[in-house]
Amino acid sequence: MTNYKLHNRESVSTETANTFLVLENQLGFVPNVFAVLGQNTHTLEAFLTMNEKFNFSSLTAVEREIVQIAVSVENECPYCVAGHSAFAKVQELDDKIIHAVRTEAIIDNPKLESLRRFTIALVNSAGRDVDDELKNFINSGYSELQAIDVILGVCIKTFSNLVSGLTKLPLDKPFTPFTWSSKYLNKSAA
Description:
Helices cover about 65% and strands about 0% of the residues. The protein is mostly helical. It folds into two domains: about 10-55, AhpD-like (Single alpha-helices involved in coiled-coils or other helix-helix interfaces); about 60-185, AhpD-like (Up-down Bundle), CATH 1.20.1290.
């Protein structure tokens, strides 16, 4: 059994220490997912770059959090569900929408619900056999380009879900008010 170390600015390269400093300035702390990636500067850089590009995608802040939380719920990743729920709160996104995604309930907004369902379909099918969900996604007002943006979000979040699962990331203190487990799932809504 491997124990993955949570790194800090003193235990990493100068380049990564600078990255950690930027994260501390932006977020107030270095989330554990970044701390565990600190041992591999190139992987950390790739993960941060993908996140940055996703933030500049055609999706709104609430749409990006729907994608990231939906992927994390589907992959049963408590760390990432809690983290993105916390980030949604900081961004003052609608609590009802975030709660619906966390519990697999139907989002009251049909467009956003089509995004949630399309995201889940991508996670469960590796992009195959999602014609009905893609059609619904497009018919609800999204574009083909936005479908590709959703795929980017699925990739990013799947990466961090895998890192969390493999390394058994402990929940960061700022995320603890948003603790999540699969017991919160609304099995009848799926």
